[in-house]
Write a structure and sequence with these properties.
mainly alpha, Methane Monooxygenase Hydroxylase, Chain G, domain 1, 4 helices, 42% helix
């Protein structure tokens, strides 16, 4: 057995989210474009954009950041207990549905979503591939929405709907980005 002579396979990989909701110093997200604090919501960890580590966080710093922000949020909530929210919740989507339609497309649709996001909205991007992803995600969203309306919701359908929405938001953001920053790299934005 030869050790040390075999080439190591190296390729880019996406293993975490970078950025997220802009938050204040205790983890409260801002309402888009207004700068106001979003009521009764905290964003901590991978979902938050704190700015503590610049455009691209360094590996292993996110855990410490999450612990600090969680402690700050907990102290704020304990010191400022939230008022009780009085809005009535809507009926669960399954009310009144008796038929359960076929759910086998969910596995296929989830795989298609994963492939689209990896191949078209991965680490290295181009506007043409991002636009292709947007079209594919729109169609996939329509198909899953049809399944959603025709069946009793299951965890897998709810998760798939949410994943498609996140994919659409990531793709939309990538299409509006006009500069390469951190690990957001679009080959069409490289200045020659």
């Amino acid at each position: 057995m030869k050790l040390g002579h075999d080439p190591l396979p190296i390729s880019p990989a996406a293993h975490y989210a970078v950025g997220g909701l802009p938050v204040d110093d205790i983890g409260r997200p801002f309402v888009k474009d207004s700068g106001e604090i979003f009521p009764r919501l905290f964003a901590i960890g991978e979902v938050a954009c704190t700015g503590m580590h610049g455009a691209n966080r360094l590996a292993s710093n996110s855990l410490l950041e999450a612990v600090v922000y969680a402690a700050r949020a907990a102290e704020h909530i304990i010191s400022n207990p939230p008022t009780k929210h009085q809005n009535e919740l809507p009926d669960w989507r399954a009310d009144g549905l008796d038929n359960l339609s076929e759910h086998t497309p969910v596995v296929h649709d989830k795989n298609e979503l994963r492939q689209t996001m990896t191949q078209e909205v991965g680490i290295v991007r181009r506007f043409s591939r991002l636009n292709r992803a947007a079209r594919r995600l729109e169609l996939l969203g329509q198909e899953v929405d049809r399944l959603w309306r025709e069946s009793i919701p299951t965890r897998s359908i709810v998760e798939l709907r949410n994943l498609i929405l996140v994919g659409q938001l990531v793709t939309e953001d990538a299409l509006t980005r006009k500069e390469n920053c951190g690990l957001h790299f679009n080959q069409d934005l490289v200045k020659e």
